[in-house]
Amino acid sequence: MGEHTVSSFDEELGEIDRLIRDMGDLSGAMTRASTNALLNSDTALAQRVISDDTIMDAKQRDLDERAITLIAKRQPMAQDLRSVVGAIRMAADLERIGDLAKNIAKRVSAVGQSATPRTLAHSIDAMAGLVLHQVNAVVEHYVKRDAEALIRLRDEDEKIDIQYTSVFRELLTYMMEDPRNITSCTHLLFCAKNLERIGDHVTNIAENAYYVVTGEQLPVQRPKLDETQMTVDADA
Amino acid sequence: MNMLTDAAVEEALDASQKPRPLKMRGENVRVFYGEKQALFDVNLDVLENQVTALIGPSGCGKSTFLRCLNRMNDTIDICRIEGRITLDEQDIYDPRIDVVELRARVGMVFQKPNPFPKSIYENIAYGPRIHGLASKKAEFDEIVESSLQKAGLFNEVKDRLHEPGTGLSGGQQQRLCIARAIAVSPEVILMDEPCSALDPIATAKVEELIDELRENYTIVIVTHSMQQAARVSQRTAMFHLGNLVEEGPTDKMFTNPDDKRTQDYITGRFG
Question: With contacts defined as CB-CB under 8 Å, which chain A residues touch B269?
Answer without folding.
Answer: 1-5
